[in-house]
Amino acid sequence: MMQLKTKNLKFTIKLVLIALLVSPTVFAQNTVNEVITQVNTDSIKSFSKFKVDGVAGVVGDYLILESDIDKFLFDIKSQGQSTVDVTPCQVMGKLLEDKLLAHHAIQDSIIVSDIRVNSEVDQIIDRFSQQLGSDQKVVEYYKKDNMADLRSELFGIRRDILLSERMNERIIETVDVTPDEVKSFYESIPEDELPTFGVELEIAQIVIEPKATEEEKQRIIDRLNGFRADIIDNGSSFATKAVLYTDDGASRGEGGFMSIDRRTPLVKEFRDVVFGLQEGEISEPFETEYGFHIAMLEKIKGDKLEVRHILLIPEIKKAQEEEAKDHINLIRKRIVDGELTFDEAAREFSVEKETKFDGGVLVNPVTLDKRFELNKLDPTLYTKVSNLKDDEVSLVFNDPSRTGKTRYKIMTVKNRLEEHKADYSKDYVKIKDLALKEKQIKEIAKWQEEKIQETYIKVNGNNRDCEYVSNWLKK
Questions:
Q1: What is the 3-state secondary structure (H, E, C) of 318-349?
Q2: Which end of the chain is less enclosed by CB atoms within 10 A, N or C?
Q3: pLDDT higher at 139 or 226
């Protein structure tokens, strides 16, 4: 058979393929909903059965079946993607890598939570049910007798994928690059192979939110104090009051219950209050960006706190919204008229603490620098800034907060970098990221080479004719 060469590690980082693997063999990442397209049910019907199973390979305690390779390729096709450039040898190499990672994750006592695995199985089944029309069609698609059998298989597969991800993270967690390594990496790229970066923008914004009247705030505080007194003096149930009255939809069904620790992402004001309570104590009303709360510490379990809270959001009336809109329109006029700069206005008037002291400049949450690639902007944001010239100020618009509160904004483009070849000084952050990825790939390759030698691995049949970069055949 013709020798087929596959660079497994490079294949591994082709995320578009990984994201499309939603079969029982290889499931997609958490963002599967972003890449699933409508499954072609005709192609599913025409694919009557997978290859009769034989063992394609063994890695430690894991078997790779011949049907796993077919399912991998079939799932790519069922999502409308081409498999022209994806060979069975590449798929086999990818499956060998995944099983090696999962096997050693278990050997190293890496644990994944059953709760998380079950949650992801639920999400995957729900998404496929929406695509195919019903849970029963999902069961039929995976050729199972019932949902219980399907869930059991999916649980094991999703658990193994999470284990391999955790093992991968552990291998590269200490890998970093120095400035000298970044420079060497950049200089090693031939000039005609330098990557091209698209249009990038530095964006700033000013945010103004309508404020509730003092009378409305006091009404909310008085109501929370009434709840607190009824619970303390009359023995009323905190949980029942949360179910009946809280404005926090996420915790309402659990009676305001939250299990938290120091790593749980919480706003500072909430964290300061709940971590200062004694068991059984109920806080006074306090304010956060979400509204007003009272909180009760039910129990301390090691480093975790079991708390309940009730959130009430003050009502914002139309008059307050109009007042806020007039205010930001006046700010915009003063900037356009040259009375003050955008930076000055952001520092003086913006209510967004994260950006106001830097003149309203946004930080890209992905790269952690101040540039945003124009073609990767959120569509809503794209429409606001794509046609702005440098220092031009957008019209006022409403960008509701996570809780649905009215939030008026104006935006400006501080700097626009046109499409260009990678430049060491201008694109240092991106070049550093590329250099880091290359170093991480080398670290994984080194780990893989070592573990292959100490792990029982057997590759069977035609799969032995593949020319793997990694020494899976131990020649």
A1: HHHHHHHHHHHHHHHHHHHCCCCCHHHHHHHH
A2: C
A3: 226
